[in-house]
Helix-turn-helix domain-containing protein (Chitinophaga agrisoli), 290 residues
Amino acid sequence: MKAPFRDKDALLPDAVKKDIDQFNVFPLDAYIGVHPQPWPYSRRDYYKISLVLGRNVYHYANRSIETKPPALCFGNPLIPYSVEQLDPLHQSGYCCVFTAAFFEGLGVLQDYPVFKPGGDPVYQLNAGEKEEIAGIFARMQAEINSNYPYKYDVLRAIVLELLHRAPKLQPAEAFTQQGSDRISACFRELLERQFPVRPNPPRAILRAPAEFARCLGVSVAQLNRALKTEQDKSTSACITDRLLQEAQGLLKHTDWPIADIATALGFRAPAEFIRFFEENARQSLRAFRL
């Protein structure tokens, strides 16, 4: 007689089940090069560490960084950037992705130098450093494929090792300042990454021009000038318009309570949200939702 089927995940400790969707490590080859597959992880939810074996330029709002292989690169979901492959035929590497919740209780990820706005997100490696970092990624791959029940605790420790190792490496040099079109594009990307919102648990929402400027590594005045040039609007106006658009969609197409909508959009209280909506929509919230 066959034993009854048991889901192997049911045997895992609760803490381990929680970590399964919050961390992964894998080769980059399928997602870079001439015919890359779509990136499988939401940029707004996951931090990223990559060992990149290829020539690339990393474009940020305030600078561009060119790298030769090998390079160690860090991605913060609140800092938009794009990657220009200078040699698509010769691209490979490894990557690990993880959420902020994966490190819950172990500090704030954005406090680490590699993830700070205006910090150093890209490091050029020599041959010895490449072997060292490749070894760290190999340890992560071996661990995640193991049957050890507490492997995610080990993986947290290995990632922390990388976060502390990187500031001792040589940062790659930025070679140019960006124009208003690039600053504006990165602002729009960062603004859009916040939506759609969710009620429980809500994500932190950036609402102040200074918060956006800090993430983009520019001053509020630079950001305002760029948006005025590209969109003929101030930073505050762009943020207000997008928040209002999201609020209208939630009011019309969901049955969320007003308090949940207010919280999800970053307002401290329903009354503050109602005042914001009525001042900018020029219509009462009650009448709009009918």
